[in-house]
Amino acid sequence: MSEWVELNMGPQHPSTHGVLRLKIKVEGEIVREVEPVIGYLHRNAEKLCENTFFCDNLLYFDRMDYVGAPGMEVGYLEAAEKLLGVPPPERAIWIRTIMAELSRIASHLVWLGAYGLDLGMLTPFFYAFDLREKIMTIFVEASGSRLLTNYCSIGGVYQDFNEKIVQEIEDFINIAPSKIEELNSLFVKNDIFISRTKGIGYMSKEVAIDYGVTGPMLRASGVEYDVRKAEPYLAYSKVNFEIPVSSKGDNLARFLVRIEEMRQSVKIISQAIKKLPDGPFFNPKAKKSMMIRMRGEGEVYARTEASKGEFGVYIVGDGGVKPYRVRVRSPSLKNLSVLREIGKNVMIADLVAISGTTDLVFGEIDR
Amino acid sequence: MSLLSFTYGIFKVLGYDLATFVTFLIDSIVFLLVASVAVAGTIYFFRKYMARVQLRIGPNRVGKFGTLQLIADAFKLFGKESILPRLRDDLPYKVAPVLVFIGLLVAFSILPYGSLYYIGDIFISNSGVGIILLFAVLAIMPIGELLAGISSHNKYSLIGALRAVAKDISFEVPMMLSVLAIVVMASARTTNSLNISSVVTSELLPYGILEPLGLFVFFISMIARASYTPFDMGESESELVSGYSTEYTGMRFGLFYLGMFGTILLGSFIVSLFYLGGYNGPYSSDIGLIYLLIKAVIVVVISFTVWLAMPRIRIDKFVNFGWKYLLPISVINLVLAGFLTIYLGW
Amino acid sequence: MEFQPGEEKGKDGRKIIKVKKEDLLSTLESLKKKGFNHLSLITGVDRKDYIEVVYHLHSFESNEYVVVKTVTYNSKVPSVTHLWKSADWDEREEYDLMGIEFEGHPDLRRLFLPQNWVGHPLRKDYNMKNVQYINMDEDGEDYATFDPGDGW
Amino acid sequence: MKTGEPGLITTTLEKALEWGRSNSIWPLTFGLACCAIEMMAVQASKVDISRFGSEIFRSSPRQSDLMIVAGTVTKKMAPRVKRLYDEMPYPKYVIAMGVCVIQGGPYVEGYSVVLGVDRVIPVDVYVPGCPPTPEALTYGIMTLQKKIRGENTR
To answer: Which of A332, A355, A360, B5 has the most CB atoms at less than 10 Å from its CB?
Structure first.
């Protein structure tokens, strides 16, 4: 016991993806205990949401999972629109589906590049970001912003898809599959990568369920659970896609599940862009002058499948123009909490590899 | 005719003692400068090559195509504040980077570089036991890394140093065995089989073709010696911040940085000398240096490609690999070399 | 609005089971036995004179969703960490921001804010004007102060 | 020569050092929040910061010259930001990236956000935006280069 050395990884550390601090106790190279310390990006979004209009709260959700902002917006609006009673029209639903899936790909690409850096691979990062730039141009065209789009709004979307965006998305669908294959082969054809991930960081099904892990991490442990299928929202019940599931539960499984999710997302987008209906892109009840006068009462919980896992928003309204209480179920928080379990008795290098596969985004964990 | 006698001819008027002294002095200085510039060129080349591989442009703002980038870096590093950790071990802390860099330069001055038109054979030291000397000098550099890690009073540095030592121990033995195989094969053709230039001259067919296993072991050892990915466990940027050099600032860090790239270049020279035929080839008495340089550059490019494409291996797996695979392979290689030498008369 | 135990449907169509605080553990235990093995979220809602604690449960097998709601007047609720490990950080977070004390939690510390932060920010009576600062001691542990002092 | 007037060699050396410093700014790998993703995009292929000699992101503060404070600085993080700044060797520079870092941004009313990183450490260049585009950050770095060389930045 006395020979264990305490080591602090972070908050500034190249492998912690932001501001995670890992208090680890090492015995030589082997990590005996790991305790994540979080809260270094606690930006009190939940408190601020209580003091802001329903329509403006969207910006705090953008800044939660900042690598896949439209996905977060969709999550918030699922709840807020039910509470306020302004359902979006059909076209807006399809547009949101496309944006959410694009953001899922963008988020997984950032993760992929960062995971390469975690393992010491310098090059895949650039290839991933190169593909991600294509998504960024779509976002810029649609919303005017690259990262934090603030594109969806209550009762619809901020502006309609024009010809150019549709063309850009079609271009993206054409090049994305081959690029994803290229990225995939950069990793899985490498023996050292396989040796760093296969069988490392095993998480059993029971542990995953017990800790409330969701998203690709849960699916890699053999639970076929995806909110898009379990409780379809947006247009997910009208498109064909499969949930990638692996029963291995190790780093490699989590890696492959995410890669397969990207492929499925491309599939969803290509179906959605074909089915994109004509019509209004926002609910007339939610026109701009009405925005700040919308009142909501009661309580609503909506869950969506964000790129990290099940993203839930619980809004309680008291009949005012501002929410009474907003609570966010952050998938990354639960995914991180399991690190205490699976990060034990591994080597330091493996701890980095494992915490890499949990795909942490701190805007969402600390909020 | 060699570089030394060429210079000696100029200073002959000074008398034997003085002329010899001045010859070695001037040649060494010129040589150190050339070696430093070559290392800087390697870094520049790496940054450009890395940029190209990663769909980028690379440095292009200072000088034409950014050629002065390294000079700018050097100026900046010279001008940086030198922070010394309060609880450091003073002497080892200061000696470590110097040790790494000096070891590198000395190793460069042991190698023969072939010949070029009027200058003749280019070497500084043509020691009769050059191979032993070379690997003795190469063994100094990890000591510098170890001292740096232990003396900087930082847990990351300490773990980095421990990893570096574990790594060094596991590849040194196979490396030496594979070099021994070369000495064995060379002994059939030359009387002075520990002299590097006679070993290189004796390889009419490159030893890399005769003993590919040796080339494999030696190349991996050279990657591990230069400690870049996949074998950069001592530094491991994403795990140990910067490994043994975490606490170093300014030019002290610059020396580690130069040392790393210098070792890549040095390793490429050694690999091309011992295994790829070195400066042998048609008209080698005139343009031997060119042959060597081309081979070295090819090896450098291969090394960089490996660096950019590979993830880092875990330290225990590398130790396993070293003792369970590299060592038996190098022993087999040695036996094969002896067999070839005795029965086939190579 | 008075709190009444019973069942109702929420605005989003989810089943809400309202229980008294005393019956909370037994209800949750029986739900867990029924297959609700995924504790999604624990929420505290400050209703000024009492605090609502909401549990969102999901069952992977039957794909059902259920919301369990209880109230506490002294901001004390029994902990459910022995049923779901996932409750651990949720309860710590709610303790941190809402000030609900979960009785029986093995390691009830603040999750985001330093241990000696005064007040629980998500309470409606939290005074935002009372600015607190955070400093770091030699060991890297944080402590909150009202005094800007060193480093600010 | 009058006293106090720098000699030719000193000025030349000074110029050379400034030239070196301005063309070889090694940033610290230090991302806090949203802006860190755009900071990564600055490294990446489209807006290639390596053209200015800044592609070497050092993860140890001891070896870096520039701290890009990318993302909201919370009160819990502020002492760490200050310590990281203290660990960097002189001459060191700070770029405040994004409105959160400049004055608190959308979180300005909160209880746990620092209203501007300049309350903790001195800042050289402010890059506004939420988040600033990679081009904006590149412009910030170029402004910093001009500032190091003592040129007029307007």
So the answer is: A332
Q: Which residue of C has its CA nearest to A43?
A: C112
Q: Which of D40, D44, D109 sits opposite A51 (nearest CB)?
A: D109
Q: Is residue C24 located within the same domain as residue C97?
A: yes
Q: What is the ipTM of this complex?
A: 0.87
Query: Which residue ranges make up each domain of chain B?
Result: 86-344
pLDDT at position D153:
60
Extract the residue ranges of chain D whose pLDDT is less than 70: 1-6, 152-154
Q: Does D55 touch chain B (CB under 8 A)?
A: yes
Looking up residue D139, the CATH number of its domain turns out to be: 3.40.50.12280
Looking at the fold, whether C19 and C43 belong to one and the same domain comes out as: yes
Class of domain A44-366 as given by CATH: mainly alpha
Instruction: Identify the pLDDT of residue D1.
Output: 47
Over the stretch A123-173, which tens digit does the pLDDT of each residue have? 888 888 888 888 888 888 888 888 888 888 888 888 888 888 888 888 888
The count of CB pairs under 8 A between chains A and C is 82
C105 lies in the same domain as C138: no
Question: Chain D residue closest to B157 (CA)?
Answer: D60
Residues C37 and C58 in one domain: yes
Question: Is D60 in Cβ contact with B245 (below 8 Å)?
Answer: yes
> What would the mean pLDDT of A45-53 be, rounded to a whole number?
85
Pick from A56, A54, A101: nearest CA to A322: A54
Q: Indicate the residue of A38, A231, A324 with minimum beta-carbon distance to C111.
A: A38
The pTM of this model reads 0.90
Three-state DSSP state, B204: coil
Instruction: Please give the residue range of the domain that contains residue D16.
Output: 9-149
- C21 & C75 share domain: yes
Domain count for chain C, please give it. 2
> Looking at chain B, which subunits does it touch, using at least 3 CB pairs closer than 8 Å as the criterion?
A, D
Subunits with 3+ Cβ pairs within 8 Å of D are A, B, C
Average pLDDT over residues B148-159: 85
- List of long-range contacts for B36-44, beta carbons under 8 Å, 24+ apart: B36/B105, B36/B258, B38/B265, B39/B104, B39/B258, B39/B261, B39/B262, B39/B265, B40/B70, B40/B71, B40/B74, B40/B258, B41/B70, B42/B261, B42/B262, B42/B264, B42/B265, B42/B300, B43/B70, B43/B257, B43/B258, B43/B261, B44/B69, B44/B70
Residue range(s) defining the domain that contains residue C28: 6-109
Dist CA A24 CA B133 (whole Å): 43
Average pLDDT on B48-59 reads: 86
Q: Considering the domain boundaries, does residue D154 fall inside one?
A: no
As for how many domains chain D has, the answer is: 1
Q: Best residue in B44, B60, B80 to probe D by mutation, most D CBs within 10 Å?
A: B80
Per the CB < 8 A criterion, the answer to whether A301 and C67 are in contact is yes
Co-location of C127 and C145 in the same domain: yes
B309 touches chain A (CB under 8 A): yes
A63 contacts chain D (CB < 8 A): yes
Distance from CA of A9 to the nearest CA of C (A): 11
Residues from chain B that touch A116, judged by Cβ atoms under 8 A, are 311
How does pLDDT run across C24-48, given as a tens digit for each residue? 888 888 888 888 888 888 888 888 8
Instruction: Please report the DSSP string for A46-102 in residue order.
Output: HHHHHTS-TTTTHHHHHTTSTTSHHHHHHHHHHHHHHHHT-PPPHHHHHHHHHHHHH
Q: Which residues of B touch D65 (CB under 8 A)?
A: 76, 80
Does B240 reach chain A within 8 Å, measured CB to CB? yes
User: D16 and B75 in contact by Cβ < 8 A?
Assistant: yes
Establish if C1 belongs to a structural domain: no
For B253, the closest chain D residue by CA position comes to: D63
- Under 8 Å CB pairs connecting chains B and D tally to 98
The dihedral over CA atoms of C99, C103, C104, C108, expressed in degrees to the nearest 10, equals 20
